[in-house]
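2.7 Reproducibility. Because tokenized structures are sensitive to small changes in the input, we list the exact sequence used for Cell division protein FtsA, including any N-terminal residues retained from the expression construct. No trimming or masking was applied before prediction.
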Amino acid sequence: MSIFGGSSFGLPRTKPLSSKRAHVVSVLDIGSTKVVCIIARLTPRRESAVLPGRTHNVEVIGLGHQRSHGIKSGVIADLDAVENVVRLAVDAAERMAGLTVESLIVNVSAGRIGSDVYTASIDLGGQEVEAGDLRKVLIAAGQQSQGNDRAVLHSLPTGFSLDGERGIRDPLGMYGDVLGVDMHVVTAERAALRNLELCINRAHLTVEGVVATPYASGLAALVDDEVELGCAAIDMGGGMTTISVFAQGKLIHTDAIGIGGHHVTTDLARGLSTRIEDAERLKVVHGSAVANGADDREVVSVPPIGEDDRDQPTQVSKALLTRIISARIEETLEMLRDRIQRSGFSPVVGKRVVLTGGACQLTGMPEAARRILARNVRIGRPMGVSGLPAAAKGPAFSTAVGLTIYPQMADQETHAGQGGLFSPFGNGNSRFARMGQWLKESF
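Resulting structure tokens (single pass, no recycling of outputs):
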């Protein structure tokens, strides 16, 4: 039976890590441009001022990545093609690590990711806040988010209140009459998740946990002060661009738009009448998001679209290239600016924005983003892990690296579904629970 299909199972939940033991974690980043599998060893670490809250050091011991096929704007369009790419990526990571993967933590970008805050409160009668009270108020908030067509990906308490006083991080042991909580709930459409599970299962693998792409990329690309003081991470992928807003150490908002780097490539292919692969090369080698005074004087050779040997490459000015690219980039950045404004979290984001994802590497992207978003912008590369090959240290690998970091954050989440609050899996006898037990015994 599908884990996403009926009411008897919730989503598989990544088990919180034991702070005293080493773990091996396998993750899969399924994107529109590439599919990445990482196998990482997590070893306990001491609390330190650098990356506080991280309980483990993450060391990459296996990495496999393949060009994506069968994915369009984050949505699975061809099951066979995606299954084949997943097999190849996992196989490469397994060979490098010398391990066999059976279950994975996977990301999800499709399914119209939703982000809502639910508020609930309970009466304490002037008594001390106990664990049972916390459980009760979290369940009350979580139950508001239950929907038949949508599945809960993340359920994060962002703040508690006592007698109307907000901003309390941990009310346990405090006294009051009314205990309240604000719960940030990230959801996705069940149909998209079923297709994701089907792809993984067809490759003879199981889903150990599901993480929203914006959450994963933010975990990898943001530094402590940004996560604490408030910051937006914008992950610019091939087919999707996602937004995550962090504050006070927690994810407080997510959003996504179905535009990415591939749309820039398609615009170039149409505007210059050339093939997609040639347009991609022109974008990477000569493309820029901002105009340069010398662009009119520079000429770029555009290969013809046909197979006829008599067709000669056409010569166009670099300025034309830049005009086509900047039009799409400006449209995308304006949409992102408006989404942040409409979310109500613009004051929380303040002046801090981090761009990550493969498409943010386009020349001039930070300058274009600073002008349109009217904020300080930096390029975010994956941080906080060791053992990454040089080729995987760029922004394009932020989501995959974030998935390896995520298990350390799993204990921040609460899930009041059929499996019960704090239950990592929908059913203790499910294959996911057994897989977790196997990992415990084997590593």
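DSSP finds twelve helices and 19 strands in the chain.
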